[in-house]
Design goal:
Layout (H helix, E strand, L loop, with lengths): L16 H25 L3 E8 L2 E3 L2 E4 L4 E8 L5 E4 L1 H4 L2 E3 L11 E4 L4 E8 L3 E6 L9 E6 L1
Parallel strand pairs: 1-4, 3-10
Antiparallel strand pairs: 1-2, 4-8, 5-7, 6-8, 9-10
Bound molecules: copper (II) ion.
């Protein structure tokens, strides 16, 4: 056989690319392990969050640390609404980060549209949620991970 010697053990390229890649992979594996652990223990619980002019319904969400959820966002209004909760998003292992608007930490939901966040709640705390477009109109709420 003429395999090249140990490609996996090749010296790291200059810079921290390899290390960053490993850290990212470890984070992904950790999140996946947590998610599958949560999913294995019990099926993900579905929680509905309706968006309209100008409120979230309900305006308080409660999750339990270590459990898996599907948070269904449904825009029942006639304007575009956003789910903006960066501290909350930093406190969960999100299975489908592609649901976030590109380059941002929020979910944009058009009128009549539904989007889903699949995650395991990781860190206890109280987190603000708001619609970045309509928080001035009172479109705000709170999320608790207990
Ligand atoms: Cu809004």
């Amino acid at each position: 056989m003429t395999t090249r010697g140990e490609p996996e053990a090749a010296p790291l390229a200059p810079g921290a690319c390899g290390i960053e890649r490993r850290a990212a992979l470890a984070a992904l594996l950790g999140a996946a392990a947590l998610a599958s652990a949560g999913a294995g223990a019990a099926p993900a619980e579905t929680v509905e969050l309706a968006m309209s002019e100008y409120r979230f319904s309900p305006d308080r969400l409660r999750f339990r640390r270590g459990l898996a959820y599907r948070l269904e966002l449904e825009n029942r209004g006639s304007e575009l609404h956003e789910f903006t909760a960066p501290e909350f998003l930093a406190s969960i292992a999100l299975d489908n980060p592609e649901v976030l608007a590109p380059g941002s930490q929020e979910v944009v939901v058009r009128p009549g549209e539904r989007k889903e966040l699949r995650f395991v709640a990781l860190r206890r705390g109280r987190y603000a949620m708001r619609c970045a477009d309509h928080d001035w109109a009172g479109m705000v709420g709170e999320i608790v991970i207990a």
